[in-house]
């Protein structure tokens, strides 16, 4: 195989690069547009196909990111902000860039609270998944105001529409990169985990993936339709700018970011609104019903195998264990319980390995700590600061191995049975990984009665 292989797509050919990681050869194709740049009249429109091209498109560097400013010095994950308009792009990491391989595919949606995050993070490198026979696709999508602010003259949930457009690109193109479009698992962490749960209950996404992995998905409540006009009204009242695409389309990125910070600031006038103003919202059309309600009471996504879980301390350092329980552990346990009650294929985990890294989170299994273990990138930039000088490779082998097995065979293997009401088997990722029966018995009694 050439050092710079060229692969056809429905929009035009792309040229990637061959590389070796720990002696294993793989290939990557970076910054491939799956939709046209969302600028000008397309800025707040649904995603549309990119203009086709004829000569090979160089796909050897990450494309522009929707993130213009990161989460700041306290951010755990290194997530670069890259300039440019063509933010609706994706990256393909594959062990075999050719048709016929028919390998399973993992589509990764990054986190960042739906206002930040970047698919160009070294923590999302697909080399380890490639080593284990999985094609990895990571994608960018519109964030904040552009992706999720309700506007009177634009469709809601534009970021969600971006996820669906990327999955449609995978369906139409991934076979040429060695993937099997019938064996797609969608996965994400934090806001990306929320994205996964949203896609499970979005009819337009049905058939685009066969399994789902949701890591540390946050509570996205309230999501009722009444929040739509309330969020738009708050935006206009705080900024003096109408919540319309017409008023926002010509504004600079810096100006939009300033408006976003203004409307997202704390204050008594938003006490009745969602904690996250910019997030997927049940609109009665694309997303028929609030995500948590549909996952616990409805039928959408019921037949899709789901592996989900959380870290033990998530946001403990920022507001105590009560915040972690309210935002992460309780809602995800509710999903597992509801699915188990109906016999739906579900696997539950808690990541509890305590980081030895110095700082106020020392001794905690905090938000995002599980990611370098899931991707098996313990040597990547920023991991030492989060996980210390010698994070246990055997734990990465176990976590990454379970996810890989799930992508391959719709079961994490390793004697990790489904979460059922009669046993409630839960995988605890600690220094010595263990399978425990009903470890949240006390929490269930306190939260659900």
What does the model show?
This protein is of the alpha/beta class. It has a single domain (6-448), classed as Alpha/Beta hydrolase fold, catalytic domain (Rossmann fold, 3-Layer(aba) Sandwich). It is 29% helix and 17% strand. It has 14 helices and 14 strands. The chain has helices spanning 127-131, 144-148, 158-173, 191-200, 227-239, 245-248, 253-264, 291-297, 316-319, 321-341, 371-374, 383-387, 393-409, 441-448, and strands spanning 6-7, 14-15, 17-21, 24-33, 57-58, 89-94, 103-109, 135-139, 179-189, 211-215, 306-311, 346-351, 425-429, 434-437. The strands form 2 sheets. An 11-stranded mixed sheet has the order 3-4-6-8-7-9-10-11-12-13-14, sandwiched between helices. It has a 3-stranded mixed sheet with strand order 1-2-5, with no helix packed on it. Strand 1 and strand 2 (14-15) form a beta hairpin. The longest helix is centred in the last third of the chain and has 21 residues, at 321-341.
